[in-house]
């Protein structure tokens, strides 16, 4: 293949990008998107604060624009995200207990119903595990509604859109460590009890302090061995030149070595589009030119 999307398709995978909908009017941006990518994820437009700014009042215009763009260009859509402790609307701050649980479940149901049939995979729950060595759940307003909030969210999502793959998504879970062990135990438990979960997303935000782990492939494989698919969902790698290019190549090779690692999404298009642009972590420079990391990624696919 001569593009990321075409090369990934040769092994039945997709290659996606996180998209900021307001950039779809930038011709350089949209030119790269349409040429190279076969999947899109809304960078912010499908989050709770964006879609339900007031209780039970839903705004889908921006997310719908992205879905229309994807449909017009033959791209898949990864939904991001239904339940997360960040980027919640302000009105949730005063809720707790049953009221917050019910607000969360209503949100999951309404949004997944609105997008029913249009979403390839949903990040149903994002970032629910704590950093560090505990392997425990992260403390959050949602967690304080009870330990079963995650499975309740997955069941609501399945009921609303039975055709979407339902994923758990997190960061610092890319290698085997206490945090990924905690996620692993949850997924194993969900599979054993029939809680509907189909996939696990690995955000894969890499920096000099947190590089691509040597056991990345083994970690992806142990999740696949639980019966779920895995995807790399927000890939970006701080750096430049050949060291960045080598890291991208290692990530792609790890995914391709795992049969049910079904797709890779980078967290933006140009370095200047990145949520951490000073890290220059993406595949295209600010002018939209292909970086060394682009070439190594394409070669590894
Ligand atoms: C980031 C967006 O890229 C920014 O535009 C926004 O200001 C904050 O959120 N993990 C996630 C993503 O799951 O949704 C986050 O995206 C980055 C961390």
From TrEMBL:
The active site is at residue 234. Keywords: Carbohydrate metabolism, Glycosidase, Hydrolase, Polysaccharide degradation, Signal, Xylan degradation. Residues 1-300 form the GH10 domain. It comes from the Bacteria. It catalyses: Endohydrolysis of (1->4)-beta-D-xylosidic linkages in xylans. Its EC number is 3.2.1.8. The keyword ATP-binding does not apply. Belongs to the glycosyl hydrolase 10 (cellulase F) family. This is Beta-xylanase. The lineage of its organism: Bacteria, Bacillati, Actinomycetota, Actinomycetes, Micromonosporales. The chain holds residues 45 to 345 of 463 of the full protein.
């Amino acid at each position: 293949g001569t593009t990321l999307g075409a090369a990934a398709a040769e092994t039945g995978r997709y290659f996606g990008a996180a998209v900021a909908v307001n950039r779809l009017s930038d011709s350089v941006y949209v030119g790269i998107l349409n040429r190279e990518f076969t999947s899109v994820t809304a960078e912010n437009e499908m989050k709770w604060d964006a879609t339900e700014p007031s209780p039970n009042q839903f705004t889908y215009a921006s997310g719908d624009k992205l879905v229309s763009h994807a449909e017009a260009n033959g791209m898949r859509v990864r939904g991001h995200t239904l339940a997360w402790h960040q980027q919640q609307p302000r009105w949730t701050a005063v809720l707790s207990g049953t009221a917050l649980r019910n607000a969360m479940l209503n949100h999951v149901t309404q949004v997944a119903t609105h997008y029913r049939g249009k979403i390839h995979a949903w990040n149903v729950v994002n970032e629910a595990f704590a950093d560090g060595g505990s392997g425990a759940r992260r403390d959050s307003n949602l967690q304080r509604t009870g330990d079963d909030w995650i499975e309740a969210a997955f069941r609501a999502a399945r009921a609303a859109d039975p055709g979407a793959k339902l994923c758990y998504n997190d960061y610092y879970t890319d290698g085997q460590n206490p945090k990924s062990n905690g996620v692993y135990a949850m997924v194993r438990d969900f599979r054993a009890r029939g809680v509907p979960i189909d996939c696990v997303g690995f955000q894969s935000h890499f920096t000099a302090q947190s590089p691509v782990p040597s056991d990345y492939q083994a970690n992806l494989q142990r999740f696949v061995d639980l019966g779920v698919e895995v995807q790399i969902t927000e890939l970006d790698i701080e750096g430049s030149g050949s060291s960045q290019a080598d890291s991208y190549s290692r990530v792609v090779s790890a995914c391709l070595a795992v049969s049910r690692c079904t797709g890779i999404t980078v967290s933006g298009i140009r370095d200047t589009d990145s949520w951490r642009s000073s890290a220059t972590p993406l595949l295209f420079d600010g002018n939209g030119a292909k970086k060394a990391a682009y070439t190594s990624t394409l070669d590894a696919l």
